Amino acid sequence: MHTPGAGPAVEAVGLVKRYGRTTALDGLDLTVRRGTVTAVLGPNGAGKTTAVESCEGYRVPDAGRLRVLGLDPVAQAAALRPRIGVMLQRDGVYPGVRAMEMLRHVARLHAHPLDVGELAGRLGLDGFGRTTYRRLSGGQRQRLALALALVGRPELVFLDEPTAGLDPQARHATWALIRELRDDGVTVLLTTHHMEEAEELADEVAIVDAGRVIAHGGPAELSRGGASDVLRFTGRPGLDLVSLRQALPVGSEATEPSPGNYRITGDVGPRLLATVTAWCAQHGVLADRITTRRHTLEDVFLELTGKELRP
Q1: Which CATH code, of 3.30.70.1560, 3.20.190.10, 3.40.50.300, 3.30.565.10, is assigned to 228-294?
Q2: Which of 11, 39, 133, 196 is 20 to 30 A away from residue 302, measured at CA?
Q3: SS3 string of 2-36?
Q4: What would be the CATH architecture of the domain defined by 10-223?
Q5: What is the pLDDT of residues 187-235, one digit of tens each?
Q6: Boundaries of every domain in the chain
Q7: What are the pLDDT digits (tens) for 25-51?
């Protein structure tokens, strides 16, 4: 088991990166605690890929301070590389090499690699281990890339869209493996276009837009920090909203947007639902079509960026 060291796994302060007239990073700040899973979300062109590639040592920021496991990822790359795992989306693998040959080769480069056979079995590489890379499907290449990132027992692993192109069974197997990594003390920094993936896996979420981190916190914390959850029901028009508001928990609000259609915002949970149904019963109201909608991480993302998260 990895023992998390002192200080954050990643500490970026004021990172700036420009490509000609285009500013990819515009004073980005990001802290990743050791032994956690952090998901980086952002619309296309937001700067998340540049930020992660800077952490991996593949990009050199024009300004700012960056430390990964306490090291400068460029100046101290030789010391850092053996301690991190990087999942590449493309390139980095010889087209003519067989999948298992590549995995064994990378394993031999590390002092204490994982058991290659066991890792291959977990990720379902057994069925195409003798297939050359050029003949692998997109999902098979994705599984191999994940295996290559993990085989060296990294302290910190960067996963770029780890379940892109995977079927539901393979996706859930990958999620289970990522949770095991975290439980073993490994820090995971992943990018994803799947909100469900971020909500399922991440201890913390960083939303990036226009080259900056515009929100950072736990998925539940970010969801609570945005708009309220909503409970809707229908009943006879003109209900006594003053009485209803007095019965609701503190922080809730009741409105009648249109005759007979009622909207209650607040912390939608068992207590609020019970309060509303009890109030309706006391006032002889037959509430119909009761629906609830919890405020989700996707809602927060859309509110903050005004854009959908698409691959």
Answers
A1: 3.30.70.1560
A2: 11
A3: CCCCCCCCEEEEEEEEEECCEEEEEEEEEEECCCC
A4: 3-Layer(aba) Sandwich (3.40)
A5: 999 999 888 899 999 999 999 999 999 999 998 888 766 556 789 999 9
A6: 10-223, 228-294
A7: 999 999 999 999 999 999 989 999 999
